[in-house]
Amino acid sequence: MTPKLVAGIEPPYYTAVFTSVRPDAPEGYAETSVRMQEIVREVPGFLGYESARTPGGIGITVAYFRDLEALDKWRLDTEHQAAKRYGREHWYDSYSVHIGKVERSYGFERE
């Protein structure tokens, strides 16, 4: 199965790029990740996400939002804030977040 990428979003839109280092499969992480995916999908203006992790523990998730209001709604969600606190205390060795405005976007897909 070929993974599907988020494509066809008309700019401008915003990205939240979350890069992290954590051990493989820490306790409770998978369940929390599923719950965060459920919550973010309910945010008006959420457009999708892509995520990848290396066997060595480096992960990158890029989430796409129509506008800064949608991104702020996600950032300020109380369950999301609690998960971030827990992650800092228990899961992550380090992480960084980068917010960007996309002004041009294009892609390719083999048929």
TrEMBL record:
Residues annotated as domain ABM: 13-99
Record's signal peptide: none
EC number(s) per entry: 1.14.-.-
One Pfam entry name: ABM
Alphabetized UniProt keyword annotations: Monooxygenase, Oxidoreductase
Annotated InterPro entries: ABM_dom (IPR007138), Dimeric_a/b-barrel (IPR011008), Jasmonate_Hydroxylase-like (IPR052936)
Keyword Flavoprotein in annotation: no
Highest taxon in the source lineage: Bacteria
One annotated GO molecular function: monooxygenase activity
Top enzyme class: oxidoreductase
PANTHER family per the UniProt record, alphabetical: ABM DOMAIN-CONTAINING PROTEIN, BLL5343 PROTEIN
Protein name listed in UniProt: Antibiotic biosynthesis monooxygenase family protein
